[in-house]
């Protein structure tokens, strides 16, 4: 052994090959089966992808680095089920690129946030967290009241569709309109959003002003969608609790 | 710098600079607005500036004959300067974000000053800017000396250093503008990722070519580690960053990985960014500077072999310990946990080998702050790897994950180990490449040492307390089976620790500022010719 | 060349060197320390045992499940069930039963209130404040004035289904917009309303407008108490603000605050527990205000 190594250290390409081989095995063994073992991700029938407005909100969530403080992953631990709700399933983030599971909880987990608070509260909280939660150390995001850029949405959906997210042609073509319509419950397009994305989609003026589509609309729409894309985790917990 | 290049090299440099400027122009013109346009502009400015400088210097005196018999230390010198600049940026951002968690409104309500955007400025600035430049600069220094040869080429070291710093700048400025892929430690956008691949391949080729010219049949351990660092980081970087841009003319992109697979790839990368960026490369640094400074032989060659291959093989398995109890399948978590425990042995073998090497030199450790930096680094390396293996055990992780305990662990590794070994290396090599016996102010080194050690201890102890308090509060039940604390109570409980951390971090930063000033004074006073030393015949310089 | 260096004995450790030298660096030929071998062995044994007991190795389309047959999701649910049972010893009593009886049970209250406090802090305090003091847009809960009545059953109903929450059984509370009024009329009414808490009602155009348009919901003279979600305009407790400017805004745009429904997020017992807690806040707060 020692002799072998004694010779290996004289050949730089030998070291290179040795390192590549030794450092490849673990990754291959752990990553490849995540694609081949079916039970890793069991897609529920009712799982829907994010609407264009929610997707835009997600991009803002990424842009502002919310993931640095908030996880979106209820771990399989009894106290987390108690505090946050059903544990997160792999299927819930199956369309998430990238996933936003997070690695630090400076603030609480957000995986089950949808519906917990009102839109008004989110708007007040994001503009100035300390106005509603005096002890909060979360940053203020007053600039979210600026208009939302929707020029890229169509291409974003198209790109995701190419990667396998189930956006069909109508969703892609209607992306910008759908984003506007989701924040205008009285508009003609609102029906179409429900038709495409399902009954569980919230159609509201999230920032309270239907005449303007703001980044706030998008972020709040996204936050209100968290944990509502499928009912599977809730059903699983209800079954298990019996 | 340019006076170290031959005429043909200056011409090649000129061509490359113009190419960079054109690339930048194309990027800026194609993107028109947003981060990508700004980044194109940056590349263009850099390319034009380099081209102008090179063109003006084409007729300057050529380097003296006999260049091949001297080490090429000018790139190392530049790399060290960049290391120190990034230290200020990265640690400055660290203290800033630390302060924001105590005073959320410490800085004005502008998008770029908000916590979420500054945090990756800290991590990228410090890991890649500070750590990466130190690794590249020292690897050039070490590979030449342990191979007793000059770098194989004179242009590519500059391509590597300038290209790498452009990558860091793109990353950091992108986050401030809100352009990020959000993958921890890989936040830079797709075009920056591709750029880094080009830089890295250049680096690898240069390194191999230099090794090929070595005058010692055996390759020294330090180079094994630097090689592993270069190779595996390339592999990790490429796989984790695979993404489809939304348009070729925008910064936005979507990773090809989704959900649970994305999580596994991310932490396979993320953990091994720790392993091969923050550990393997720095072990290479330790393996050179510790024996040189202490004047002692490496304690055990055989242990070096065990720890090297142990680290290379085991580390790659353990990324899943970042995903305990999550939606990642249990089997993958078990592998991550068990390999993390086995990993402790090679890790401690390295730490033990380093400390045992100091046997017979303890009086030097006492008297020489530079050697003391390296000793403390080895101790913290041992501490943080022990802590890491412990945190990787599922039940322990159920408490520690998501809390500041992780942050404490991170900084016992990065402040105590990574930064300390960098400072030890800097204080050893800066006088050498400046043609001096010592740093301009040895007393300042002493001051730096104590600031760094005190700062680290305050930081780490505060975060241990913070994290364990948080973890316990989140899961505490009263005697009636009800959760004892609301989340906001745990936020409130963190305040004193966040304040302490800010103070500890500020001390650490103050030490780094002293180091930068001291290096500046040392390099300034150096004779111009000092940078490129003659190849050593025997023994160490 | 350095490969031909002599092996030499290191005076400190007594071991010989390997005979290589790089820029002055040498290595000792120290034998493998036993402890390293043992440590490796122990950790490998630990790993193998773990692999046998736990799910561990992937096998193409399947993986080894381990002798213990563990599933982390099931374990978490089982743990959660245990906690629910533990808590159920007293919490179950909350699920049914008369509020007055429950409230009179001092032991039960001593057990229950800390739990309620935590539930309130994690779920309600964001809007209603940590002590139920309310905030702009969110009503005070620590006073004795109730939009839908002081009866605990009514309060529980509000918590269960929310107000304007979108839940099919939600309470609906809408303050219509009086945008058809002229600016001057709205200003006059606003002035009138802002005087009500100080007891300045008086007569005049504004009072008439109020009686015609507002009293149906807010009661004669803004007394409130009709338990249809319209607040009293005579007390100090306000949702949005009762200064003249805010009232004008209320009149121009109307209001429909949202209180989320909790029935899918909290159990019935928890909702009733919170009802008692909230009612208790009111008593404590009410006394304080007196
Ligand atoms: C035997 C060696 C080590 C092991 C097994 C190990 C293990 C771990 C574990 C279990 C975590 C916590 C994951 C979580 O709960 O989220 C962690 C986080 C981390 N460790 Fe280590 N660690 C080791 C050495 C080091 C060293 C030497 C450094 C730094 C130089 C380091 C840097 C980090 C970083 C940066 C993170 C944070 C990752 C993130 O969440 O962003 N580790 N490590
Ligand atoms: C001046 C000294 C430093 C200060 C004040 C500081 C402060 C911080 C703060 C406040 C965070 C964010 C923690 C959170 O989100 O709760 C952080 C994260 C981090 N820092 Fe530092 N830092 C310092 C030096 C360093 C150095 C020298 C390195 C690396 C060489 C480093 C690497 C990291 C990493 C990898 C993380 C991410 C940890 C995680 O995600 O778990 N830091 N630091
Ligand atoms: Ca992290
Ligand atoms: Ca990237
Ligand atoms: Cu790790």
From TrEMBL, chain A:
Residues 52-161 form the Cytochrome c domain. Coiled coil: none annotated. The chain crosses the membrane at residues 12-35. InterPro entries: Cyt_c-like_dom, Cyt_c_oxidase_monohaem-su/FixO. Keywords: Heme, Iron, Membrane, Metal-binding, Transmembrane, Transmembrane helix. Pfam families: FixO (PF02433). NCBIfam families: ccoO (TIGR00781), PRK14487.1 (NF011055). This is Cytochrome-c oxidase, cbb3-type subunit II. It comes from Paracoccus marinaquae.
TrEMBL record, chain B:
It is a multi-pass membrane protein. It catalyses: 4 Fe(II)-[cytochrome c] + O2 + 8 H(+)(in) = 4 Fe(III)-[cytochrome c] + 2 H2O + 4 H(+)(out). The keyword Membrane applies. It is found in: Cell membrane. InterPro entries: Cyt_c_oxase-like_su1_dom (IPR023616), Cyt_C_Oxase_1 (IPR000883), Cyt_c_Oxase_su1_BS (IPR023615), Cyt_c_oxidase_cbb3_su1 (IPR004677). Residues 14-541 form the Cytochrome oxidase subunit I profile domain. The keyword Translocase applies. Keywords: Cell membrane, Copper, Electron transport, Heme, Iron, Membrane, Metal-binding, Respiratory chain, Translocase, Transmembrane, Transmembrane helix, Transport. Its main location: membrane. Its EC number is 7.1.1.9. The chain crosses the membrane at residues 38-58, 78-103, 123-143, 155-178, 190-212, 224-248, 268-289, 301-318, 330-349, 370-393, 413-430, 450-477, 497-517. Pathway: Energy metabolism; oxidative phosphorylation. Its cofactor is Cu(2+); heme b. Belongs to the heme-copper respiratory oxidase family. This is cytochrome-c oxidase. It comes from Paracoccus marinaquae. The gene is ccoN.
UniProtKB/TrEMBL annotation, chain C:
Binds 2 heme C groups per subunit. InterPro entries: CcoP_N (IPR032858), Cyt_c-like_dom (IPR009056), Cyt_c_oxidase_cbb3_su3 (IPR004678), Cytochrome_c_Oxidase_Subunit (IPR050597). Residues 111-197, 201-282 form the Cytochrome c domain. It is found in: Cell inner membrane. Keywords: Cell inner membrane, Cell membrane, Electron transport, Heme, Hydrogen ion transport, Ion transport, Iron, Membrane, Metal-binding, Oxidoreductase, Repeat, Respiratory chain, Transmembrane, Transmembrane helix, Transport. Its cofactor is heme c. Pfam families: Cytochrome_CBB3, FixP_N. The chain crosses the membrane at residues 35-57. Its main location: membrane. Pathway: Energy metabolism; oxidative phosphorylation. Belongs to the CcoP / FixP family. PANTHER family: CBB3-TYPE CYTOCHROME C OXIDASE SUBUNIT FIXP. Component of the cbb3-type cytochrome c oxidase. C-type cytochrome. Part of the cbb3-type cytochrome c oxidase complex. This is Cbb3-type cytochrome c oxidase subunit. The lineage of its organism: Bacteria, Pseudomonadati, Pseudomonadota, Alphaproteobacteria, Rhodobacterales.
